[in-house]
# Entry
Amino acid sequence: MQYRRLGSTGLQLSALSFGAWVTFGQQVGRKQARELLSLAWDRGINFFDNAETYNHGEAEQLMGDVLVDLRLPRDSYCVSSKVFFGAVEHPRPTQRGLSRKHVVEACHQALQRLRVDYLDLYFCHRPDPDTPVAETVAAMDLLVRQGKVLYWGTSEWPAAAIHEAHRVAREGGYAAPVAEQPQYNLLHRERVEVEYAPLYAAYGMGTTIWSPLASGLLSGKYDHGVPEDSRLAQPGYEWLREIALGEGGARAARVRGLRPLAAELGATPAQLAIAWCLANPQVSTVLLGASRREQLEQNLAVLDLLPHFDLALKQRIERVVEGGAG
# Structure
C-alpha cells in the first residue's frame, strides 16, 4: 500500500480506501462486510468512509459492528461520516441540512452507529442553501474543540462556498475544512481539475475522491447490459443508472475501448481507470466500493500497475475515452 498526506495536513491515508455507499446493508451483509473490511485492512487500507444517509444509517451500524468485531487498534485506522441528507427516510426539517442542531446531533448519532469515540473525518455532504456557511463552520469547529471530530471537510461544494468557509474560519479563528470529497473519474473531471484548482495551493485542500469507476461503468461490467447483482440494478438507484449509462447508453459506448487497451497491458479496465485517478497529485485517496472479495482484490491490484503508469499511458487512456484511437 502507498500512503498520502491529506492535503497539507499530517494525516496519512492509504492511497486506496474503502467506502460503504450502496453496498453495506443492501448488497452486503454482516459476513461479507467482515470479509471485505478484513481484506482491506490486511492489504494496508486505513481509511473507511461512510455517511448518515447510506441505507438510512444501517451502513454505519454494520461497519461499526464489524470494525469492533475485528478488534482493530483505533489509532491505526481512520473512519468518516457525512452530514446533510439525514438518516431517516422522510426527515423532518431539523433531521437534515447543515444547521448547528443537525450537524451536532448527526455527529453524535454517527459515533453511536460506528461505535467510536471520535470521527477522524466529518464531511458536509452537500452545501445547504438554508443555513449560513458561518453557522456550519462554527458547528464543525465546536465538534473539533470537543474532540469528537479531528478533521472536517466538504463534499460536492462549489468552490465559492469553500472559499467562504475558509474566510469565515480565518476571521473567526475556527477550524477550517481540510478536504473535499468529490466525484472524480475519466468521465467526470472538470470540478476536480478546473473548478477546485485554486483551492489546493490556497488552502492545502486534499481530496478523497468517490466513484473512480463511474458507478462501475469504467470497469466494463455494463458493456452488454446491466447485471442483476450490480449497483445500477438496485431498487431506488434508477436515477444513478440513468446518469451512469447516459441517454441511450451513450456514456457506455465511450468507454468500451478501454477493454482492448487494458488487455494489451495485462490489466483490467477498472485498474486502468483507478490508476488514472491516482496519477493526479491532488488526489489524496481513491474510495473503492465492493460487494465481493474478488472485486476488491482485483481493484487493489492496481498498485502493481502504478510503476508502469506514465504520462504517455495516461494520454492514451484519455484519448480512448474521448473517442479517439488508443
